[in-house]
Amino acid sequence: xxxxxxxxxxxxxxxxxxxxxxxxxxxGIGRWIRQNSDDALEINEGALYPALHRLEKKGLLxxxxxxxxxxxxxxxxxxxxxxRRQLKAEIVRWKKYSQAVTAVLSASxx
Amino acid sequence: xxxxxxxxxxxxxxxxxxxxxxxxxxxGIGRWIRQNSDDALEINEGALYPALHRLEKKGLLxxxxxxxxxxxxxxxxxxxxxxRRQLKAEIVRWKKYSQAVTAVLSASxx
DNA sequence: AGTCATACCTCAGTGGTCAAGGTATTGCTG
DNA sequence: CAGCAATACCTTGACCACTGAGGTATGACT
Lengths: 110, 110
What we know:
2 copies of one chain form a homodimer. The first copy, chain A, has 4 helices and 3 strands, in the order H-E-H-H-E-E-H. By secondary structure, the first copy, chain A, is an alpha+beta fold. In chain A, strands 1-3-2 form a 3-stranded antiparallel β-sheet. Chains A and B meet through helix 1, helix 2 and helix 4 of A and helix 1, helix 2 and helix 4 of B. Chain A binds a DNA duplex through helix 2, helix 3 and strand 3.
Protein backbone atom coordinates (compact mmCIF):
# COMPACT_ATOMS: atom_id res chain seq x y z
CA UNK A 1 0.00 0.00 0.00
CA UNK A 2 1.73 3.13 -1.25
CA UNK A 3 1.76 5.93 1.29
CA UNK A 4 1.39 9.61 0.47
CA UNK A 5 4.47 10.96 2.19
CA UNK A 6 2.59 12.81 4.89
CA UNK A 7 3.79 16.05 6.34
CA UNK A 8 4.25 14.74 9.85
CA UNK A 9 1.62 15.93 12.26
CA UNK A 10 -1.26 16.40 9.87
CA UNK A 11 -2.58 12.87 10.19
CA UNK A 12 -3.81 13.15 13.77
CA UNK A 13 -5.94 16.16 12.96
CA UNK A 14 -7.52 14.46 9.97
CA UNK A 15 -8.35 11.44 12.09
CA UNK A 16 -10.07 13.58 14.68
CA UNK A 17 -12.01 15.26 11.91
CA UNK A 18 -13.09 11.92 10.45
CA UNK A 19 -14.88 10.90 13.62
CA UNK A 20 -16.38 14.29 14.36
CA UNK A 21 -19.89 13.24 13.31
CA UNK A 22 -19.91 9.84 14.90
CA UNK A 23 -17.99 6.68 15.58
CA UNK A 24 -15.90 5.15 12.81
CA UNK A 25 -13.53 2.21 12.66
CA UNK A 26 -9.86 2.51 11.76
CA UNK A 27 -9.94 1.04 8.31
CA GLY A 28 -12.94 3.19 7.48
CA ILE A 29 -11.16 6.30 8.69
CA GLY A 30 -8.35 5.63 6.26
CA ARG A 31 -10.84 5.22 3.45
CA TRP A 32 -12.74 8.34 4.48
CA ILE A 33 -9.60 10.46 4.37
CA ARG A 34 -8.69 9.12 0.96
CA GLN A 35 -12.14 9.84 -0.41
CA ASN A 36 -12.43 13.29 1.10
CA SER A 37 -9.04 14.24 -0.28
CA ASP A 38 -10.11 13.14 -3.75
CA ASP A 39 -7.59 10.27 -3.65
CA ALA A 40 -4.71 12.68 -2.98
CA LEU A 41 -4.01 11.13 0.41
CA GLU A 42 -3.49 7.41 0.83
CA ILE A 43 -3.01 6.63 4.50
CA ASN A 44 -0.35 4.05 5.27
CA GLU A 45 -1.67 1.53 7.79
CA GLY A 46 1.65 1.63 9.61
CA ALA A 47 0.93 5.28 10.31
CA LEU A 48 -2.82 4.95 10.82
CA TYR A 49 -3.03 2.34 13.57
CA PRO A 50 -0.26 3.75 15.76
CA ALA A 51 -1.92 7.16 15.40
CA LEU A 52 -5.25 5.77 16.60
CA HIS A 53 -3.62 4.16 19.63
CA ARG A 54 -1.72 7.36 20.33
CA LEU A 55 -4.88 9.46 20.24
CA GLU A 56 -6.70 6.99 22.42
CA LYS A 57 -3.85 7.02 24.94
CA LYS A 58 -3.97 10.82 25.00
CA GLY A 59 -7.68 10.66 25.79
CA LEU A 60 -8.76 12.31 22.55
CA LEU A 61 -10.51 9.23 21.21
CA UNK A 62 -12.37 6.41 22.91
CA UNK A 63 -12.52 2.96 21.40
CA UNK A 64 -15.05 0.16 21.41
CA UNK A 65 -15.42 -3.10 19.53
CA UNK A 66 -18.44 -3.40 17.28
CA UNK A 67 -19.69 -4.76 13.99
CA UNK A 68 -19.68 -2.95 10.65
CA UNK A 69 -22.61 -2.59 8.28
CA UNK A 70 -21.09 -5.39 6.27
CA UNK A 71 -20.97 -7.75 9.23
CA UNK A 72 -17.32 -7.53 10.17
CA UNK A 73 -15.95 -6.96 13.62
CA UNK A 74 -14.06 -3.73 13.94
CA UNK A 75 -12.85 -1.28 16.54
CA UNK A 76 -14.88 1.91 16.56
CA UNK A 77 -13.44 5.22 17.62
CA UNK A 78 -15.23 8.34 18.67
CA UNK A 79 -14.24 11.77 19.92
CA UNK A 80 -14.02 12.51 23.61
CA UNK A 81 -14.74 16.02 24.86
CA UNK A 82 -11.00 16.66 24.96
CA UNK A 83 -10.72 15.34 21.43
CA ARG A 84 -13.33 17.77 20.20
CA ARG A 85 -11.51 20.67 21.82
CA GLN A 86 -8.24 19.46 20.33
CA LEU A 87 -9.76 19.16 16.88
CA LYS A 88 -10.98 22.73 17.01
CA ALA A 89 -7.56 23.99 18.06
CA GLU A 90 -5.75 21.90 15.46
CA ILE A 91 -7.94 23.18 12.66
CA VAL A 92 -7.11 26.74 13.64
CA ARG A 93 -3.45 25.84 13.77
CA TRP A 94 -3.56 24.20 10.36
CA LYS A 95 -5.26 27.19 8.79
CA LYS A 96 -2.70 29.62 10.15
CA TYR A 97 0.20 27.37 9.35
CA SER A 98 -0.85 26.48 5.82
CA GLN A 99 -1.56 30.10 5.02
CA ALA A 100 1.85 31.06 6.36
CA VAL A 101 3.65 28.43 4.29
CA THR A 102 1.67 29.33 1.21
CA ALA A 103 2.58 32.97 1.74
CA VAL A 104 6.25 32.08 2.04
CA LEU A 105 6.18 29.87 -1.05
CA SER A 106 4.52 32.54 -3.14
CA ALA A 107 6.65 35.46 -1.97
CA SER A 108 7.73 37.38 -5.03
CA UNK A 109 10.77 39.28 -3.89
CA UNK A 110 13.76 38.96 -1.63
CA UNK B 1 14.17 30.88 20.89
CA UNK B 2 10.64 29.52 20.67
CA UNK B 3 10.04 27.30 17.65
CA UNK B 4 6.82 27.18 15.69
CA UNK B 5 6.10 23.47 15.88
CA UNK B 6 6.73 22.82 12.22
CA UNK B 7 4.84 20.23 10.27
CA UNK B 8 7.84 18.10 9.44
CA UNK B 9 8.98 18.41 5.86
CA UNK B 10 7.82 21.93 5.12
CA UNK B 11 11.01 23.64 6.25
CA UNK B 12 13.25 22.40 3.44
CA UNK B 13 10.91 23.74 0.79
CA UNK B 14 10.75 27.16 2.44
CA UNK B 15 14.53 27.30 2.61
CA UNK B 16 14.84 26.52 -1.09
CA UNK B 17 12.30 29.24 -1.80
CA UNK B 18 14.21 31.77 0.30
CA UNK B 19 17.28 31.50 -1.88
CA UNK B 20 15.47 31.36 -5.19
CA UNK B 21 16.43 34.94 -6.13
CA UNK B 22 19.99 34.84 -4.99
CA UNK B 23 22.40 33.75 -2.29
CA UNK B 24 21.44 34.19 1.33
CA UNK B 25 23.07 33.21 4.59
CA UNK B 26 21.50 30.87 7.15
CA UNK B 27 20.57 33.37 9.78
CA GLY B 28 19.06 35.62 7.13
CA ILE B 29 17.03 32.75 5.74
CA GLY B 30 15.46 32.22 9.13
CA ARG B 31 14.62 35.89 9.34
CA TRP B 32 13.27 35.95 5.80
CA ILE B 33 10.90 33.08 6.52
CA ARG B 34 9.66 34.75 9.67
CA GLN B 35 9.04 38.02 7.88
CA ASN B 36 7.37 36.47 4.86
CA SER B 37 5.06 34.46 7.08
CA ASP B 38 4.05 37.60 8.93
CA ASP B 39 5.75 36.33 12.09
CA ALA B 40 3.67 33.14 12.07
CA LEU B 41 6.75 30.98 11.59
CA GLU B 42 9.74 31.27 13.89
CA ILE B 43 12.44 28.90 12.71
CA ASN B 44 14.31 27.11 15.46
CA GLU B 45 18.05 27.25 14.81
CA GLY B 46 18.36 23.63 15.81
CA ALA B 47 16.14 22.84 12.85
CA LEU B 48 17.52 25.46 10.48
CA TYR B 49 21.23 24.65 10.44
CA PRO B 50 20.87 20.88 10.13
CA ALA B 51 18.41 21.50 7.29
CA LEU B 52 20.92 23.65 5.44
CA HIS B 53 23.61 21.01 5.79
CA ARG B 54 21.17 18.35 4.69
CA LEU B 55 20.20 20.28 1.56
CA GLU B 56 23.81 20.99 0.76
CA LYS B 57 24.67 17.33 1.13
CA LYS B 58 21.85 16.44 -1.23
CA GLY B 59 23.24 18.82 -3.80
CA LEU B 60 20.27 21.16 -3.72
CA LEU B 61 22.19 24.07 -2.24
CA UNK B 62 25.80 25.16 -2.61
CA UNK B 63 27.55 27.03 0.16
CA UNK B 64 30.27 29.62 0.28
CA UNK B 65 31.72 31.84 2.99
CA UNK B 66 31.28 35.55 2.50
CA UNK B 67 30.62 38.82 4.26
CA UNK B 68 27.23 40.37 4.97
CA UNK B 69 26.18 43.93 4.23
CA UNK B 70 26.84 44.68 7.88
CA UNK B 71 30.39 43.41 7.72
CA UNK B 72 29.98 40.02 9.36
CA UNK B 73 31.26 36.75 8.04
CA UNK B 74 28.52 34.32 7.13
CA UNK B 75 27.94 31.23 5.06
CA UNK B 76 25.97 31.99 1.92
CA UNK B 77 23.74 29.45 0.25
CA UNK B 78 22.37 29.42 -3.25
CA UNK B 79 20.27 27.06 -5.33
CA UNK B 80 21.89 24.51 -7.59
CA UNK B 81 20.13 23.44 -10.78
CA UNK B 82 18.88 20.36 -8.95
CA UNK B 83 17.70 22.57 -6.11
CA ARG B 84 15.66 24.68 -8.49
CA ARG B 85 14.02 21.61 -9.95
CA GLN B 86 13.34 20.29 -6.47
CA LEU B 87 11.81 23.58 -5.38
CA LYS B 88 9.44 23.55 -8.30
CA ALA B 89 8.35 20.00 -7.54
CA GLU B 90 7.98 20.67 -3.82
CA ILE B 91 5.79 23.70 -4.42
CA VAL B 92 3.47 21.59 -6.54
CA ARG B 93 3.45 18.94 -3.87
CA TRP B 94 2.67 21.46 -1.15
CA LYS B 95 -0.21 22.95 -3.14
CA LYS B 96 -1.79 19.58 -3.75
CA TYR B 97 -1.20 18.40 -0.22
CA SER B 98 -2.42 21.51 1.55
CA GLN B 99 -5.53 21.63 -0.60
CA ALA B 100 -6.19 17.98 0.18
CA VAL B 101 -5.81 18.47 3.93
CA THR B 102 -7.94 21.59 3.84
CA ALA B 103 -10.60 19.67 1.94
CA VAL B 104 -10.54 16.91 4.54
CA LEU B 105 -10.70 19.34 7.44
CA SER B 106 -13.64 21.18 5.97
CA ALA B 107 -15.64 18.14 4.89
CA SER B 108 -19.19 18.61 6.04
CA UNK B 109 -20.64 15.14 6.14
CA UNK B 110 -19.69 11.61 7.00
C1' DA C 1 33.39 47.31 29.88
C1' DG C 2 29.16 45.24 29.11
C1' DT C 3 25.41 43.86 26.48
C1' DC C 4 22.69 42.96 22.47
C1' DA C 5 22.01 41.19 17.94
C1' DT C 6 24.12 38.76 14.58
C1' DA C 7 25.94 34.38 12.95
C1' DC C 8 27.43 29.97 13.37
C1' DC C 9 27.33 25.18 15.50
C1' DT C 10 26.31 20.44 18.03
C1' DC C 11 24.04 16.94 20.70
C1' DA C 12 20.66 13.85 23.16
C1' DG C 13 16.14 12.76 23.15
C1' DT C 14 11.68 12.32 21.24
C1' DG C 15 8.40 10.73 18.27
C1' DG C 16 5.94 10.14 13.84
C1' DT C 17 6.22 7.73 9.50
C1' DC C 18 7.67 4.11 6.19
C1' DA C 19 8.19 -0.44 4.68
C1' DA C 20 7.32 -4.82 5.45
C1' DG C 21 5.85 -8.31 7.76
C1' DG C 22 1.85 -10.76 9.96
C1' DT C 23 -3.38 -12.85 11.34
C1' DA C 24 -8.33 -13.60 10.49
C1' DT C 25 -12.81 -13.26 8.25
C1' DT C 26 -16.30 -12.21 4.68
C1' DG C 27 -17.99 -12.67 0.22
C1' DC C 28 -17.56 -13.21 -4.55
C1' DT C 29 -16.38 -15.87 -8.53
C1' DG C 30 -14.77 -19.61 -11.37
C1' DC D 1 -16.01 -25.62 -3.18
C1' DA D 2 -11.62 -23.76 -3.73
C1' DG D 3 -9.31 -19.63 -4.29
C1' DC D 4 -8.66 -14.93 -3.97
C1' DA D 5 -9.66 -10.02 -3.19
C1' DA D 6 -11.09 -6.92 0.05
C1' DT D 7 -11.88 -5.86 4.62
C1' DA D 8 -10.02 -5.18 9.25
C1' DC D 9 -6.77 -5.48 12.60
C1' DC D 10 -1.83 -5.53 14.33
C1' DT D 11 3.55 -5.07 15.21
C1' DT D 12 8.35 -4.17 14.46
C1' DG D 13 12.85 -1.98 13.05
C1' DA D 14 14.89 1.67 10.88
C1' DC D 15 15.04 6.21 9.68
C1' DC D 16 15.18 11.03 10.25
C1' DA D 17 13.38 15.68 11.22
C1' DC D 18 12.50 18.50 14.91
C1' DT D 19 12.82 20.25 19.89
C1' DG D 20 15.28 22.14 23.50
C1' DA D 21 19.31 23.25 25.31
C1' DG D 22 23.69 23.96 25.25
C1' DG D 23 27.84 26.27 23.13
C1' DT D 24 31.46 29.90 20.47
C1' DA D 25 32.63 34.30 18.32
C1' DT D 26 32.25 38.96 16.57
C1' DG D 27 30.55 43.70 15.51
C1' DA D 28 28.19 47.73 17.18
C1' DC D 29 26.37 50.59 20.40
C1' DT D 30 26.15 52.51 25.01
